[in-house]
Amino acid sequence: MRNVNCVGILTSGGDAPGMNAAIRAVTRSAIYHGLKVKGIYRGYRGLISREIVDFKSKHVSNIIQLGGTILKTARSPEFATPEGRQIAYNNIQEEGIDALVVIGGDGSLSGAMQFAKEFDIPCIGVPGTIDNDLYGTDSTIGYDTALNTILESVDKIRDTATSHERLFFIEVMGRDAGFLALNGAIASGAEAAIIPEFSTEEDQLAEFIKSGFRKSKNSSIVLVAESELTGGAMHYADRVKNEYPQYDVRVTILGHIQRGGSPTAYDRILASRLGAAAVDSLLEGQRNIMIGIENDEIVYVPLTRATKNQKHVSHSLIDLMKMLSI
Ligand code: F6P
Fold first, then answer.
1. Among 84, 159, 203, 271, which residue carries the largest CB count within 10 Å?
2. Exposure class string for 61-93: b at 16+ Cβ within 10 A, else e
3. Ligand 1 centre and the CA of 297: distance in Å?
4. With bands split at pLDDT 50, 70 and 90, how would you rate the model's confidence at 198?
5. Is residue 315 assigned to a domain?
6. Whose alpha carbon is nearest atom 9 of ligand 1?
7. Which residue in the list 131, 133, 144, 267 is annotated as catalytic?
8. Mutate to test the pocket of ligand 1, among 131, 143, 147 (most ligand atoms within 8 A of CB)
């Protein structure tokens, strides 16, 4: 078994609230166990341009409450090339880094998997994305905070929707995953969620209108997951304007407000547990896994499974939302 003495840590892809808590947990638990830590700035891009700094405990002081990522983040086209990954590996060797902890979403962990396939470097993924779309973990870091941001926003929009008796389409993030839209709808008492995982867009809109919009209510809120498959909130508003002109329609796109802000207690605790478990897994000789959480237990998920399998949205949640919004 290869001995790990120095852990490199990076954040990659879209930032997510709680990433800092994870950086702190990896850094402090590694130091606690006698390992060295190196912070890699700007994700894989910084691995290639060698933006690497020795991390001590003080580097992660006073960050658990901060949104974003102190390590910065980037999406790196260069790392997608074999030449880029070779430069990254050479830098890792020269820096004396002998294991990598990657905090990020689907694309970032796919990058880690590819890297681990080509080079002899253990890579541990920590799921950090507001989208919650990684297979093998009940939740990803940032998802709970984003959900809370969504419901605060929807609560506010509800005031106008009710006062003016309007139909609102609110677009939420999720890049082709409906977790934020569906659970955001349940948490905010929205009347419907249009998500890429289920049925065609025709079905979802027609079904919503048919199922009694305004029969018993004077306003309605529909959460729409941003995705080419749904077409987004604008698309639905245009359709309603043309097909059901009797409704007074408005659109709100929540956008990057969902990615920001101080992480919730849930995300801070999740990030702390996953980050510390990433270091534990390296000490146990694990490699090329994602640390997940299932039924409140830490689990190790092979990176191939975490990134290749699709995490399913539960149909029972759709049924629940429909039942509770009559
Ligand atoms: O993956 C996180 C995410 O916020 C998605 O929900 C969204 O589709 C995408 O990133 C937006 O990316 P960018 O910040 O690059 O516009």
1. 271
2. eebbebbbbebbbbbbeebeeeebbebbbebbe
3. 28
4. confident
5. no
6. 175
7. 131
8. 131
- pLDDT category of residue 205 using cuts at 50, 70 and 90: confident
Residue 153's domain comprises 144-259
Within a domain: 313: no
Report the alpha-carbon distance of residue 21 to residue 279 in Å, rounded.
14
Same domain, 42 and 65: yes
**183 in any annotated domain:** yes
Q: Is residue 322 part of a domain?
A: no
* CA 233/CA 222 separation, integer angstroms: 9
Q: Which of 111, 97, 108, 121 is closest to 8 using CA atoms?
A: 97
Q: What distance in angstroms lies between residue 15's CA and the mean position of ligand 1's atoms?
A: 9
- Residue 229's pLDDT is 86
Task: Please indicate, yes or no, whether residues 127 and 149 belong to a single structural domain of this protein.
Answer: no
Buried b (16+ CB within 10 A) or exposed e, 212-232: ebeeeeebbbbbbbbbeebbb
The verdict on whether 131 is a catalytic residue reads: yes
The verdict on 249 and 109 lying in the same domain is no
- Secondary structure (DSSP) of 213-275: TTTS-S-EEEEEE-STTT-HHHHHHHHHHHH-TTS-EEEEE-GGGGG-SPPPHHHHHHHHHHH
The structural domain count of the chain equals: 2
